[in-house]
Amino acid sequence: MTPEALAASAAFGFFGGGLAGLFGIGGGAVLVPFLYTVLDAPGWSGLEIPEGAVVVVAHATSLAVIVPTSLAALWGYHRSGGVPWSIVARMGGAAAVAAVLASRLAPELPEVVLRGGFTLFLYAVGIRMLVGTRAAEIRALQEERRGLAFLVLGGIAAGLLSSLLGVGGGLLAIPFLVYGVRIDLTKLAAASMGVVALSATSGAVSYALADAPPSMPSGAVGLILLPLALALVPGAIIGARLGVRLNRRLGADRLRVLFALLLLVLATRLSWQIVSSVQ
């Protein structure tokens, strides 16, 4: 990797990790567009990826970064006693199984499908968060319920999304936790992070064991570009720990709007890239 790519990776790792700890997500919504940019520019980054493998390598590498990031954030929540482990175990277990299955499917899909799916995901989540229910209205829902069906369904959805798109799955787990399980909002980010940790770990291990093209750069483990992941991880862990602290201090509604706008900007940029590539 070039010095410029290393410096950019450290900065984006910190940014993605901060979002992970702050919102209880994996940070992949920010990491994946960055990885697209790095891997699409081999002359700048010094990383030459086999044709047709850029997207799946970006998603696999994102999951490898999300594993230590989510574990760092989860440990922060655990120390404060805020992790509902019974919910995490059941929902995260389902997510882990689904993530393995999705990691086997992803390399068989065309790159434009994976890029397009990720872009639609960003638009959907950004719009949902921008016009979503306010925290005060969510608290007015009925008492918490822990039916196994809600937990398993949410876990499967989060795990599939996690491995296919290289995200933690927290952005999909959160609606199930809020509207299905009706979890106490003070435990929401911690529960989501637990699901993310299990799902990302399962998916990353599966990608690491997958058959990779013979011309992958040195240091690759399966479909994971380990040198790039290691460049992102330190900043991501530091950012995740700071994000957990900020989660307790800042207003949820303001943060939700700012993050939604960021996702919509990223989605628009990726849309333009996809349209330009097929013209």
Brief rundown of the structure:
With 279 residues, the protein is an all-alpha fold. The protein has helices at 3-23, 28-39, 42-45, 54-79, 85-105, 111-130, 135-138, 148-165, 170-181, 188-208, 226-247, 252-278, and strands spanning 220-221, 224-225.
Our Rg estimate from Cα atoms comes to 18 Å
Helix count from the secondary structure assignment = 12
Strand order of the largest sheet: 1-2
Mean pLDDT: 81
Portion of residues in beta strands equals: under 5%
| Low-pLDDT ranges | none
Largest sheet: 2 strands, antiparallel
Give, in order, the helices and strands. HHHHHHHHHHEEHH
Helix percent reads over 70%
Distance between the termini: 30 Å
Number of strands: 2
What is the total number of structural domains? Answer: 1
Which structural class do the helices and strands define? mainly alpha
The coarse overall form would be globular
Describe the protein's architecture and organization:
The longest helix is centred in the C-terminal third of the chain and has 27 residues, at 252-278. The protein has helices at residues 3-23, 28-39, 42-45, 54-79, 85-105, 111-130, 135-138, 148-165, 170-181, 188-208, 226-247, 252-278; strands at residues 220-221, 224-225. The chain contains twelve helices and two strands, in the order H-H-H-H-H-H-H-H-H-H-E-E-H-H. The protein is an all-alpha fold and 279 residues long. The protein has a two-stranded antiparallel sheet. It is globular, with a radius of gyration of 18 Å. It has one domain (3-278). The chain starts with a helix and ends with a helix.
